[in-house]
Amino acid sequence: DQQVKQNSPSLSVQEGRISILNCDYTNSMFDYFLWYKKYPAEGPTFLISISSIKDKNEDGRFTVFLNKSAKHLSLHIVPSQPGDSAVYFCAASVLGSSNTGKLIFGQGTTLQVKP
Amino acid sequence: EAQVTQNPRYLITVTGKKLTVTCSQNMNHEYMSWYRQDPGLGLRQIYYSMNVEVTDKGDVPEGYKVSRKEKRNFPLILESPSPNQTSLYFCASSETGINYGYTFGSGTRLTVV
Fold it and tell me: Tens digit of pLDDT for each residue in A1-60?
């Protein structure tokens, strides 16, 4: 049972345009969400996070939006750059539980930004 | 340099031959975790540890063992590897919990024939 789902395996956008990566979750207990970026032959790196008490968090070109009623979050990259080409994973957790080490990832979306 | 170090980077082994993948972090992090990455399945958590001598199962713990005898090390043990454990494995650590995000190692590509 996939609790965190990224239904688009890949996305291609033109440099300078907006990239929107989507993520859905099924567990209503999740209250903390993160996005990771992964280049080939490297481990994932933390990008941005959001708590369920917020609906938006912004960090430079990256903004994460959370819609709790729809159990949906999205990552917006504006403007997209060729160096953003990577695999993006969303992840979810339940903070404050006895399992705060448990972090569940989606399948990943491969973003290609064309020059 | 703050980092999570896994060894080896690549390993080919035969079915049933016990192996250990080492993981070490130099950031004094309390939390450590192991993930495997498979095509179409993303990253799946195998085990995690919230402190020395405290470990718990993730989503896919079958066939794996871990230990946390000291804070910096969190080895992954495959007592009797099978071909379905062929995967890309990542070790990760975190300061005090998920809100800080996990820092990942560079990965270990394991092939079991």
Answer: 779 999 999 999 999 999 999 999 999 989 889 999 999 989 999 999 999 999 999 999
In the predicted model, is pLDDT for residue B81 greater than 80? yes
A75 in helix, strand or coil? strand
Q: In chain A, which residues have their Cβ closer than 8 Å to the Cβ of B41?
A: 107
Q: Which residues pair with residue A45 across a beta bridge?
A: A37
Beta bridge partners of A76: A20, A63
The identity of residue A88, as a single letter, is Y
Is residue A94 over pLDDT 90? Answer: no
Contacts of A69 (CB under 8 A, 6+ apart): none
d(CA A32, CA A87): 20
- pLDDT at res. A61: 98
For residue A43, give the nearest of B50, B56, B105 by CB distance.
B105
Sign of the alpha-carbon torsion through B53, B57, B60, B62: positive
Q: Residue A87: phi, psi to the nearest 5?
A: -95, 130
Of B11, B37, B38, whose CA–CA distance to B22 is shortest? Answer: B11
Match 């031959």 to its residue by tokens.
B17
Contact yes or no for B40 and A107 at CB 8 A:
yes
Contact B31, B94 (CB under 8 A): yes
Residue A101 clears pLDDT 90, i.e. is over it: no
**Band of residue A78 on the pLDDT scale cut at 50, 70, 90:** very high
Asked: is A4-114 a CATH 2.60.40.10 domain? The reply is yes
